[in-house]
Amino acid sequence: MIKVVIIGSGNVAQHLVQAFAKSKEIDVLQVFSRRKETIVPLLDSNKIISSYTDVAEADLYIIAVSDDAIAKVSAQLPFENRLVVHTSGSVPMDSVDNKNRKGIFYPVQTFTKGKEIDFNDIPICLESENATDFELLKKVAQCISHNVIKSNEKQRKALHISAVFVNNFANEMYRIANEICDENKVSFEILKPLILETATKLMTLSPKEAQTGPAKRNDLQTIQTHLDFLSNKNHVRIYKIITESIQSNGKEL
Amino acid sequence: MIKVVIIGSGNVAQHLVQAFAKSKEIDVLQVFSRRKETIVPLLDSNKIISSYTDVAEADLYIIAVSDDAIAKVSAQLPFENRLVVHTSGSVPMDSVDNKNRKGIFYPVQTFTKGKEIDFNDIPICLESENATDFELLKKVAQCISHNVIKSNEKQRKALHISAVFVNNFANEMYRIANEICDENKVSFEILKPLILETATKLMTLSPKEAQTGPAKRNDLQTIQTHLDFLSNKNHVRIYKIITESIQSNGKEL
User: Fold this and answer.
1) Three-class HEC string of A141-160
2) DSSP state of B200
């Protein structure tokens, strides 16, 4: 069995613990966590540690903490020349302290507290300093996902920014729509089938092929009617700029 | 059986013909279409007409043409005092010519050529001038959907604009992400599970609750790293404005 220690207790750490628990080839020796309450329901309590001096010897250490804590946490690890990876999409591999062998274990997904997710479909991007470590990372990742990808730092950064667009920014479109519905006393629920279909469409069409609507048709009259209707300045600004972006169809503005 | 004539041959008309064909209570007497080829596979050819003089007497006429053609088409109908509705989210009910009784039959969904869709889940917003007509519209709508809604013009307009945000604008976020992936030689496929999960999350959480990411966390360092990475001016502009929108969290900017 491959021995893994997870450092962190947030959403990513919790989901990893749950995913590894289902694999017979991975043994989660310990979780390092100063906030035990999120991990307690997932692991024997004697495996939850909160002091670096208690860290056991393992094949792989996965740092799943907030981006700005990665460097500090990796510097505090009281050992050398072991494989230490982090799970962030935007932090360089070099942020892992030089005393250990470095790598990346980046799951491209949004994790929500309390919401179960099928890890099997989640793409995991891997990077490492040397080929042997990469093979180990690959083995570990394949125990929980059938979608394992070798990336480099530039690709990972591009994926992370793209993830911000398809996840955070698309969600902001949902939030604004919710706000417009509330202002006009109509239920946001009505839009949910459309939200699902818009995402599902992408499984068979490219976003360029899937686009419809007044901006795509260059229907200036409807666009003006919409702008006249909107009262919130932020909505107007976003409506205008994204409409321009659709109209430009990928050409530089 | 309720006798229905559909006027139009585009995506909405085609999907309506298919949905009504499954109902035993609706008889699609005719489809009026100048471009027969899209309708021929869906209906007996003797039911496809292309001259207004051939229009049969029916309980309901559904105009499913482009927004700017609705008024003209309804004016050309060679009869009076029958129930004539259109399917647009943004065109006023009054655009239907005064000689007939007016109504709205607006399905809140995106229809893609050749892509089948389960009409049963699609919300249909109804409006009419009088209560008897509303009851008929409701009966017809309920034959194909379990999600039938009474709306007024302001609510319908709000829904249509909100639909632009959750559908067209969210899709534009996907398109930009695709562009960023292409520029950095990484597959857009990797983001598809995230796109689906972002939409699926909305079925149990509000968009406000579902939000994550650097803008939500006010992680200024990651935001700056992303802005430095982006080379396309349009991407930079949209990244900045939506990040500000998320940071304002619904407060007027």
Assistant:
1) HHHHCCCEEECCHHHHHHHH
2) H
Within 8 A of B215 by CB-CB distance, chain A residues are 164, 168
Q: What is the mean pLDDT of chain B?
A: 95
Cβ pair B201:A115 closer than 8 A:
yes
**Contact between chains at A67 and B222 (C-beta distance less than 8 A):** yes
- pLDDT tens column, A28-45: 999 999 888 888 888 888
Tokens 């909100």 label which residue? B162
Q: How far is A68 from chain B, CA to nearest CA, in Å?
A: 9
pLDDT confidence of residue A24 = 95
The CATH H-level superfamily of B2-151 is NAD(P)-binding Rossmann-like Domain (3.40.50.720)
Residue of B nearest to A181 (CA): B158
Which DSSP symbol is given to B57? Answer: P
pTM of the model as a whole: 0.93
* Ramachandran region, residue B102 (left: φ > 0; alpha: ψ -120 to 50; beta: rest): beta
Q: Per the CB < 8 Å rule, is B109 touching A197?
A: yes
- Report the pLDDT value the prediction gives residue A252, as an integer from 0 to 100: 59
Reported as a single tens digit per residue, the pLDDT across B107-141 is 999 988 778 888 999 999 999 999 999 999 999 99
CB within 8 Å: B250 and A158: no
Nearest to B163 among A109, A194, A221 (CB): A194
Cα separation, B164 vs A242, in Å, equals 10
pLDDT tens track for A63-99:
999 998 999 999 999 999 999 999 999 999 999 999 9
Question: Distance between CA B176 and CA B153 in Å, rounded?
Answer: 33
Separation CA B150–CA A226 (nearest Å): 21
Closest approach of B231 to chain A, Cα-based (Å): 10
Q: Is residue A41 within 8 Å of residue A114, measured between CB atoms?
A: no
What would the two tokens of residue B185 be? 């030689």
Q: Which residue in A162, A163, A238 is closest to B242 by CB distance?
A: A238
The CATH number for A156-248, chosen from 1.10.287.110, 3.50.50.60, 1.10.1040.20, 1.10.390.10, is 1.10.1040.20
**Dihedral of alpha carbons B164, B168, B174, B179, sign:** negative
Q: How far apart are CA B66 and CA A31, in angstroms?
A: 59
Percent helix, strand, coil in chain A, to 5, is 50, 15, 35
Whole-complex ipTM: 0.94
Residue extents of the structural domains in chain B = 2-151, 155-248
Instruction: Classify B155-248 by CATH class.
Output: mainly alpha
Report how many helices (DSSP H) and strands (DSSP E) chain B contains, helices first. 10, 8
